[in-house]
Amino acid sequence: MRILSALALAPFPVAAIWFGGAWLALLTASAGALMAWEWGRLCRGAIARGFAPGAVELVLVAVVVSSVTISAVGAARTALALALLGAGLVFSVARQRPEGEAGWTALGTVWVAVPCVCFLWLARDTVGGRAILLWLLAVVWATDTGAYAIGRSIGG
């Protein structure tokens, strides 16, 4: 089932990389937003409590999407600076809630935003940007699939 879902979803990032521009930025921002939302929920222990986001998750998502948007227009350094400043904002908001770990939540801002920004930065390479991104996805998918297959074959 996992392999079938991967085969069904793989065309979206491949097409976004191929067409680039706004398509790649939109997919990267969407993926970053989902990762940030999930990270915020994990840090506050909300996985079993439903899907409603709290203030911290909303700030975290806003910082990541803003960083990706700025990177998409060609200002990767500014986007990285925003991610770092945004981590401080996430930390201060996360400290206001009784549950969760503010430091880990803030670290997640950087953990999610920096790879998204760098992904778009690599895409702007006029010589081989598209090939680099496709190679990167191929390596990740191959190692993930191999790890899954080996894990299943040895029972864990």
Query: What would the principal axes of the Cα set say about the shape?
Result: globular
Q: What sequence of helices (H) and strands (E) makes up the elements? A: HHHHHHH
Mean pLDDT: 88
The number of strands is 0
- Low-pLDDT parts are none
Biggest beta sheet attributes: none
Number of helical regions: 7
Structural class designation: mainly alpha
Portion in helices: over 70%
Distance from N terminus to C terminus (CA atoms, Å) equals: 17 Å
Q: Radius of gyration, Cα only, in angstroms?
A: 17 Å
**So what's the oligomer here?**
single chain
Strand content: under 5%
Describe the structure.
The chain is mostly helical. 81% of the residues lie in helices and 0% in strands. The mean pLDDT is 88.
Short descriptors:
7 helices, globular, 0% strand, 156 residues, mainly alpha
Architecture blueprint of SSEs:
Blueprint: H1 2-9, H2 11-19, H3 21-44, H4 55-72, H5 76-94, H6 102-123, H7 129-154
Helix pairs in contact: 2-3, 3-4, 3-6, 4-5, 4-6, 5-6
Quick take:
With 156 residues, this protein is mostly helical.
